[in-house]
Amino acid sequence: MTEQVTRATFDEVMVPSYAPAAIIPVRGEGSRVWDQEGKEYIDFAGGIAVTALGHSHPTLVNTMREQAGKLWHLSNIMTNEPALRLAKKLTEKTFADRVFFANSGAEANEAAFKLARRYAFDHFGPEKNEIISFYQSFHGRTLFTVSVGGQAKYKEGFEPTPGGIHHCAFNDIEAVKALVSDKTCAIVMEPIQGEGGIIPADKEFAKQIRQLCDEHNALLVYDEVQSGVGRTGTLYAYEQLGVTPDILTSAKALGNGFPVGAMLATESVAKSLAFGTHGSTYGGNPMAAAIAEAVIEIIDTDEVLNGVKHRHQMFVDALTAINEKYDVFKEIRGMGLLVGAEVKEKYAGHAKDFFSHASNEGLLMLVAGPNVLRFTPSLIIPDEDIKEGFARFERAVAQTVSDHQ
C-alpha cells in the first residue's frame, strides 16, 4: 500500500532549500492538474517553462513507454541511437554543428562556460579567461553558474566563487564596452531574462554585443534554457534577434519535464572540448534523448509556433483588460508565452500575494522576483483554458487589491 504523504512530510524529510505550496498535485492532463483532494487547477506555470506540451501528452507517454522497453541507459564509452537522432535534429534546425548532452540547464551552462574558457585557452592562452554577464541574470545553481549569474543572493555563503567574472546592466551597451577587453573570453546573455523579471534584450543591443565579441575574439554564449524550444514563437529566441551565438544552451522544455539539457556549438568552437575534457554520466541517455526528439518534432511546426503568437496576444489582451479594471500593473512585457506583468509601486514586494490568491482560485502561476508575475503555460494550452484561467486570475487580483486597500 502506498504511504500517504502531505505537505508536512516535506518538512520532516526534505532539505529546506524549497518552500513549496501546500497543494500536492497528483495528476495532470493537458493544461489542467488535480491535487490530492481532487481540486482542479489550470496551469499557467508549466513547471517553470518546462511542460511546453502540457501534462501527459499522449505522444510523449507512448515514446517513453516504447523506449523504456528497449534501453534506459548506456555509458558514454558508447553512444546510442536516440542521442544521435536528437543531435542531428538540433544541428539541422539551428546554427550549431555539434551538441553536448547534459541533464539540466545548469549542467548545460556549466559545459558552455567551461568550453568558452577552454577555447580561449587553446587559441589565445591562459590570460584570456574573463566572462562578462549581466545583473539579474540567472544561469543555474552550480558554483560556476551562480558566479556567472547576476544575482548576489545566490552566491551568499558559498564564497569564494570562481573569479574572472564581471557584471553590468542588461541592455546597456556602454556598460559592456567599459568592461570588455582582450582578456574577455565570452559574453553570456539570455535573449530574454527570465528569473530577472521577463526582460527582453533590445535588438540593437544584441547586435552590438555580437560585434563586440567579434572585435575582441570573444565567444557569444546564449542561455536559452527558459526561452528555447518554441517558448518565444520560434524554436530558439536568437532567431528573432538577428544574431547568431557561438554557443547556446537548452533544457527545461526540451524534455517536457524529463531531465535533459543540451549545449550547442559551432564546429570550430566545439573542438576545444576534446576527448577527456568534460563529461556526464547520464547526459544523452536513451530515455531522455528519445523523449526530447519527440518534443522537438511536435514543437518545431508552423501549427505550434504560430499558435504561440496567437496565445501570446490572448495573454497580453487579458492582462491589459484586467489592468484597465484594477490598475495593478505598470508594464506587461515578454515574448511568446514567456510573459511578465510588473506590479505597480503600491504592490512592490508583494507579487506573491497575487500568486497565493491565484492558487486559492485554482490557477497555477509564477513570480519572477518580488515585483513581477510570470506566465509560462503550455505552448498548446487550449483557448478555453486561457479564458477560464484569466477568469480565476481576475478573482485573485480583486482579492489582492482588496487586501491592500
Automatic annotation (TrEMBL):
Tree of life domain: Bacteria
Assigned keywords, A-Z: Amino-acid biosynthesis, Aminotransferase, Arginine biosynthesis, Cytoplasm, Pyridoxal phosphate, Transferase
Cofactor note: Binds 1 pyridoxal phosphate per subunit.
Catalytic activity line of the entry: N(2)-acetyl-L-ornithine + 2-oxoglutarate = N-acetyl-L-glutamate 5-semialdehyde + L-glutamate
Cofactor field: pyridoxal 5'-phosphate
E.C. designation(s): 2.6.1.11
Pathway: Amino-acid biosynthesis; L-arginine biosynthesis; N(2)-acetyl-L-ornithine from L-glutamate: step 4/4
InterPro entries: Ac/SucOrn_transaminase_bac, AcOrn/SuccOrn_fam, Aminotrans_3, Aminotrans_3_PPA_site, Class-III_PLP-dep_AT, PyrdxlP-dep_Trfase, PyrdxlP-dep_Trfase_major, PyrdxlP-dep_Trfase_small
Miscellaneous note of the record: May also have succinyldiaminopimelate aminotransferase activity, thus carrying out the corresponding step in lysine biosynthesis.
UniProt record similarity statement: Belongs to the class-III pyridoxal-phosphate-dependent aminotransferase family. ArgD subfamily.
Subunit structure comment from the entry: Homodimer.
Name the record gives this protein: Acetylornithine aminotransferase
Protein's organism: Marinomonas piezotolerans
Gene that this sequence comes from: argD
